[in-house]
Amino acid sequence: MDVRLVIPMWKDTKLSPEVGIEILQLKSLIKIGEDNKIWMHDQLRDLGRSTVEQEDKEPGCWSRLWHGEDAFDVLVQQQGKSKVEAISLEGCHFMEEADCLNDEMFRKLSRLRILELAVARLDGNFQGRFRQLRWLSWHRKNVSPPTNLILGNLIVLDLSRSLIRDDWIGWKSIEFGSKLKVLNLSKCPISRTPDFSAFPSLESLILESCQELVWVDPSIALLKNLILLNLRDCKRLEKLPEQLGSMESLVELLIDGTRVKELPISRASVGSLVNLRRPSLLRSGVKELPNSIGQLTSLVELILTGTDIRSFLPGNLRSLKKLKVLDARFSPRVAAGYQIISDEILSLSSLRVLRIFMIKSLPASMSTLSCLETLHISKPDLQTLPELPSSLISLEVQEASAMTSVNLVNLVNLKELLLFRTCELKELESVSSLRKLEKMFLYSVKISTLPEEIGAFVSRLKHLVIDGCHGLKRLPILPSSLLVLRILFCHSLERLPDLSNLKNLSKLWVMGCRKLSKIEGLGNLLSLKDLDTSGCPLTWLDGPERLDPLHNLKRLRINRCTSLTRLPELPPSLEELSLTGCDQLGEIEAVAELESLQGLDISSCRSLMKLPNPSKLQRLEVFRMGDCESITKIPGLEELSNLRELNIFGCKALRLPNLSKQLRVITRN
């Protein structure tokens, strides 16, 4: 639920929602994400429901009915009393002939403020029935309003996902009052918006994913209080009404994923958009920003990612003193002409997030951006980073193929570091300064090792990912704080440090490292849940490192391990086991004891001569076996009561019993 849509409801009850929301957030009872979605803690939800249930033994006397089936029964049996203030039919499974609610069912519900009809149908004369109704959501394919549906006090109308078309009779037959503040028509098949003159108080208009929409009615100019206009993913919309440029209350204009080519902002109208804070143009058709955009002094966010804007930003950025987010991750095919004017960027003193890809120039120093927390840049000829502010929390450098050094000494607050295709970088400097670092991602970097001090000084590191670093030969002792370690396709890697100190490690992926034959300390990783050593010629299974002590291990993949001839003892906790492409594997007797196993894949294990009896694998749901040409039977297969999917291919000698009644999917080639 978008918090911006419920605030008008709370304000109507004379509450102070902003204060209440802040208090609940401080107590960690609710959370509001970056997308403005409000999340309630389960305990708070359960407390509220428990309080309501204590009001009376009979649901018809409760103030709120949130369970769809119970609410439907109360209405159909006309048990609802005047105490009922909110009804939700969401989740109720209606029979086609029993989805109709008539006016008599609502006769006693004089205090009803919130009604979620889901796909129910209304029938009858509703004169005077919904005098107190403030919120109505209705998601029916054919929304046909009943007689005398008067919604004089309605604040929120949600008709999203309904089969409403341009000539919908409801715009004329329903009597709306002047209080309506939120209109949600998301995913409705309209090609034109309604006339907005009937909704003078509207604050939020949501038309997201109206795939047929091509026309926004000019009467939108009458909405003097409109704060939010959401046109995201209206894929056929190419033009906005010119009247938008004079909407003084507009704060958010979201045209992501549309074909809109031009913003209706001129030098004459720009003075009217005094409150515009967030224009989001993500993947839109806009190719050029108006020169007057620098006069929108209230801008807080400017999202340009995925557009074909070729001139990046016009001048006059100095006046955008409130700008906190500038996201301009353009595609390489249109990025050749981009250039950042150094002094313009440095004037954005409130900037917290800066994402700029495929740029031509950077200032020599960015340390004056003292509020900057996130910097994501891409610059092919970048050899070294400029001086960066110590406020940085996240640093991402991509496609800097000429980069030879990275000085991190000043980044004492950095929590996330990502270096992607910084191809000439051979060494990380000043890692000991990164005492707050939690995540490090290195992709296609020329480093041969990591600094020795990483184990001692980077004591908060939780995620370490090294991918495609073909020059990497060894790693030093790693910090014991690690939860996730992924080392992928490092073709020169010959040895890992002893991992015994990684007591908290839950995921270990070491994949495609062609020269790695041993992982020391593996048997001591007692927190490990997910282990993948696919594509590594490991011989450790024949040595002292045992897997059976790993009682938390749920997922094990040893695909394409050509040196593996037999399975060692395995922990009984395993739920998924994949051994594909282990063509020297001659027996898998250890599998027979894995009573928790749910998925097993032994495809292309060509040396297997027979399978153990799987009768103990009563939790097994998915079994895949391919190109095991010597296997003639799978003993006890019909005893696996939970088996739902059996994929067999290339097993020419195999004879199967009839399992058609037992299985949902049987594939055999």
Automatic annotation (TrEMBL):
Source species, domain of life: Eukaryota
Classification of source organism: Eukaryota, Viridiplantae, Streptophyta, Embryophyta, Tracheophyta
Keyword Repeat: yes
Organism, as annotated: Punica granatum
Keyword tags: Repeat
GO biological process: defense response
Coiled coil: none
Residue span, Disease resistance R13L4/SHOC-2-like LRR domain: 180-356
The protein's name: Disease resistance R13L4/SHOC-2-like LRR domain-containing protein
Pfam families named among the record's database cross-references: LRR_14
InterPro entries in the record: Disease_R_plants, LRR_dom_sf, LRR_R13L4/SHOC2-like
